[in-house]
Write a structure and sequence with these properties.
Protein name: Ubiquitin carboxyl-terminal hydrolase MINDY
Pfam families: MINDY-3_4_CD
Keywords: Hydrolase, Protease, Thiol protease, Ubl conjugation pathway
Number of helices: 2
Radius of gyration: 15 Å
Largest sheet: 5 strands, antiparallel
Distance between the termini: 38 Å
Number of strands: 5
Organism: Phaetusa simplex (large-billed tern)
Strand order of the largest sheet: 1-2-3-4-5
Order of helices and strands: HEEEEHE
Shape: globular
Catalytic activity: Thiol-dependent hydrolysis of ester, thioester, amide, peptide and isopeptide bonds formed by the C-terminal Gly of ubiquitin (a 76-residue protein attached to proteins as an intracellular targeting signal)
Length: 108
Amino acid sequence: QVCHGLRTPQLPIWLCSLSGRHSVLFGTDSRLLSDWKTERVFHLYFYNGQREQTKTAHLTIDTHSHPWEEDPCEDPSSPGKRRPPVEMAIRTKWAGATVSWNGTDPFF
């Protein structure tokens, strides 16, 4: 039998399989589970357990970003438009959100 705390987490957490690697995406604000207003700008943390990741990445998610601020002349297939898998996973829940890596190099 599964304990109640495991069925209903107190903090938002997602176990991910991105590009064949398992990782964890989690938040420390329990209001993300119950209050949609906290989904405007919030923080998530990403850890993939790989040797090249020396610390958990702190991500800032903005769900009310402005897609028209991106450079329209840039080719969508250019390296500048390539998005890390974790960003694409985040956008499956929050479509159009921008993800700031806060100084950490994105993981591809």
